Amino acid sequence: MDAIETAHADWSRQDILALLQLLTMILMSIVGAFWHLIVVRPTHIDHRQGVRTPVAPAPEPPRRWTN
Predict the structure, then answer these.
(1) Would you say the pTM of this structure is higher than 0.90?
(2) pLDDT in tens, 31-62
(3) Do 40 and 55 contact (CB within 8 A), yes or no?
(4) Apex CA 19: angle with CA 5 and CA 40, to 5°?
(5) Cα–Cα distance for residue pair 29/24, rounded to 1 Å
(6) Residues 62, 64, 65, 67: what is their CA dihedral angle, to the nearest 10 degrees?
(7) How many whole angstroms separate alpha carbon 25 and alpha carbon 17?
């Protein structure tokens, strides 16, 4: 039983840093996926002109009533 209880206390500083690095990589990949869904995907780069253009046409502005 002593070996099982002390196994959890054998975390070295290198193990903790490796685990922290792994969790950071997972978190950043999730953030990057949402960044692509929200920011990058709605626009694409027109390589002929080098300008970011919206994929869908812009909606028309609301029309005002004229009397």
Answers:
(1) no
(2) 998 888 887 766 666 566 655 655 666 677 77
(3) no
(4) 150
(5) 9
(6) -150
(7) 12
